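Hello Y.,

Per our agreement to keep a running log of every chain we model this quarter, I'm adding this entry. I've kept the format consistent with earlier entries: sequence first, then predicted structure.
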Amino acid sequence: MAASPVPGGGGGGAVHSSSTSGFAFDSGLEIRTRSVEQTLLPLVSQITTLINHKDNTKKSDKTLQAIQRVGQAVNLAVGRFVKVGEAIANENWDLKEEINIACIEAKQAGETIAALTDVTKLNHVESSGQITILTDKTGVVQAARLLLSSVTKVLLLADRVVIKQIVTSRNKVLATMERLEKVNSFQEFVQIFSQFGNEMVEFAHLTGDRQNDLKDEKKKASMAVARAVLEKGTMMLLTASKTCLRHPSCDSAHKNKEGVFDRMRVALDKVIEIVTESKPNGETDRSSVSVFTGIKELKLNIEALWENLYFESKENLAAALEVILERVEDFTDSAYTSHEHRERILELSTQARTELQQFISVWMQAQSRKTKSAAEELELTVLRVSHSLNQLRKELHHTAMQLAADLLKFHADHVVLKALKLTGVEGNLEALAEYACKLSEQKEQLVETCRLLRHVSGTEPLEITCIHAEETFQVTGPQIISAAETLTLHPSSKIAKENLDVFCEAWESQISDMATLLREISDVFKGRRDFLIFSLSQKNNANLKSLKPDKPDSEEQAKIAKLGLKLALLTSDTDCELEKWEDQENEIARHGRNMSRMAYSLYLFTSHPEDTDLIAVFLLYQGFAAEGLKLTSNVQSFSKQLKDDDKLMLLLEINKLIPLCHQLQTITKTSLQNKVFLKVDKCITKIRSMMALVVQLLSLCYKLLKKVESNRWVSVTKKDIMDGKT
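Predicted structure for the entry above:
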């Protein structure tokens, strides 16, 4: 299991099988529903923005056309959404009536919005020559609300369908596992395991889609971990079961097999817990908050108290620190923590307690003495507490990381595992006992280290990865020993040797994943996970940090909002072009999709420019320019497959986009001192021009790609005919 469990942690997302077709259809429906939803809801938002725009009664021709296009786009998206909803209804009779009612409501709302924004049906012309539109604003708002309500109903019902499928699939897997546990012959085992394999593929497919759809990073990481256990457990279950069948009277073989089945059941239950959002017996994770999380929460409470003198009680702050220091005892009580680190941690713990007591004392005085000097003294004590907590955090990080690095380096060559394999094939029981003891010691060291790493991991997904690593070493260590014992008792058994190899590989894999985990924890500690920060040069980063814009006035906001709406419409056009591509992983389509997503993120910024982190926005501008250059590079590669006329036509389009990418990069690096919103205006205008070209480019590439494929087919057909004649 990789250290970062979120992207495809268990490999289940890549699992495909014809046996899953019935399930894959419904799971695919969920994905399509989400996709249409992501297209639909932004368009409804655009409708709302348009009708609330300043001077919303008299519109220019361009605005009228924009309103009509949005209305039509909403109606088309609703049509696609309804088709998906009806397909789900037809597959699930128990929910069919509810889904169909919601689909009818959505369809009616879409048609209403299209009708109320249709310029051709409006004849209200003022003396100025302008057309009055959206006089029935209330009707549009009501239709938009009905649309959101009905879409939400369909999504919730579709979610119930997917959850039911996962639960049903899990129950099938459990039932087959029970049969596998009781099997007594190889022939029967092969038949049942074949069925089990198919059911696991179904389950992996469903849970993989669900994992990708989860928004909560903690749940996504937990799902990935559970799926990884099931994936690796399937191979362990195979070899452990075969070993038991070959050596039915061997206690160590049965012990080995039972461990595999137990862990797989726990993983299956964890998946259901995640998808149903249920906790067995009302369990909570509050009691196991990591040191880093506790320090973060305490600092937030102290800062909140500083800003509002009556926000938090002094008892709560002192109690929170004591909980943190109790967790710190995991470091000071560990036999593997060096004397120097232990002394330093104890010293910093005492300092943190002293600084917090001083802060509480000053805070109590500040409640009665509301003077400037009291406020300054309070601010100083806040800084001291924060500094002492940061120093403690830093020392804990160094302690855990150094311990883990030394441990991985010492066990990198897997001497103990190699020795266990050798003693097994030699049938040396005395040597087995010696090396089993050494592996148990190594396991305790790794488990303790993972526990300490969890305290300093910095993010919830990495915390979950640390817990997974701890559990894996805790479980796999004894399983290796039982597998080695079986081989030692039956040194000529090929199945027993294969079984030991599988468990040793799982151990080695987890050691490798732990090295990756250390790098990720280090990156989080150093702040390297900030989006695109490290792709900037120091000079440019300094330019961005110097941005100190004034609050945009209403005219600037209106102008930016209008540019954003036009940009959002272009992203909708881009998405429509991308829907035509059969191969969604095509590099041209992928970079086009990335640009569309970035452009939509910029549209969201234009809705509330005064509340946005401008550094992040300018980083996004640079990312957009870089993505545009990647797109042109891939299109150039594709042009080499074309004939001269088609190639020239495509290169002409590319040559329009490349200069715009470079111009955007130049604008983001050019200093305009405090004229930030002038710079924003220029960037969004440039991006709008780029997106218009991207729409044309995607359309042209799609047509030319189809032409190339058609020519290839014709060439192959002619060759077949000629070969036939010959």
